[in-house]
Amino acid sequence: MKTLKILMWSLCLVLFSCDSDESTTSDPEEKPTEVGAPVSEPPVEEDPENEPPAEPVTQIDLMALDASVPSFVSINDTTPEDMKWTKVEDMSDEFEKWDDEKWENSFWNYGGTPVWMTDKNSGVEDGKLFIKATLRDDPVSWFQTARIHSKAQISFPMYTECSMKAANISAFNTFWLNNGDIDNRDEIDIVENNPNPTPECRDQSTKPADFPWTPWLFPTQMNSQYFIAENSVTERHEDNFDTRFLSDANPNKGKTWDEAYHIVGAWWIDERNVQFYLNGEPAGKITTQQDFTRELEIIWDLWTFKDCNIGGLPQKEELNDDTINTMRVDWVRTWKLEAK
Length: 340
Fold this sequence. Notes:
- By secondary structure, the chain is mostly beta strands.
- The radius of gyration is 32 Å and the shape is globular.
- It has a single domain, classed as Jelly Rolls (Sandwich).
- It has three helices and 18 strands.
- 34% of the residues are buried.
């Protein structure tokens, strides 16, 4: 009997020793595998030396784009194979001087605004076309500014673009195509930007009365749109691209309109389609319900309005500050798309 007890005790020691060995080799935090549950494979460690290299991002050099063709051709050429771009000199300018054979001022004022147009507030200096907003001594029309038109007109298929930098005040800095009047016209607004809307219009907590306009996004928003008006019946739609939507390769990604010169353009493809471009990249497209029928001229202007769909009125004292009250255009270039 004593011998049997000794043998049983020895057997227990052996079994205990086996259990202890298994416990020391397992992860103390590892949960037991449920019966029938799939057994997960241990992760495979990758050899960093054998990992494929990340593809480099090809940076876009906006200063090195080919000036003889639209900017997007240097980045991603989508020109139809059987077509070519031919420069339209009457609607292109590097602005070494004011050319009154190409450009002229107009003096009609936007109704219900403090805007007063005059040729005194536009011109060419230091190789740039400029439009300046200054304080006019008038209680109603105190926002003195300018509007510039091309004397030539053009129709599709064509492309135009300019390099522009906005005035850093609450006002629309524009580059657009138009012909006609308020009741009968074709209009393509390539860009209407406001880099500094008023605090009231930026306030999202109250949502301005003209919501869904988004003035809190205006500092980087492009605000492109079109109008076709026939006998006072107007068709309109917008496409609000944003500098933040540019590719990581673009040096102007996320930059405000007063922070850098931005290249803005429009490929007027046919009677119903316009493709916009920003710094050489596609930036939204519009398709109309009826045809564009008119030849259009290029226009720039700088103007303001009290409502938040424009961004609100600037402070009057800002118009005395020449460091922020002027929009500038470095160059404009226009092409016709023609058969080879």
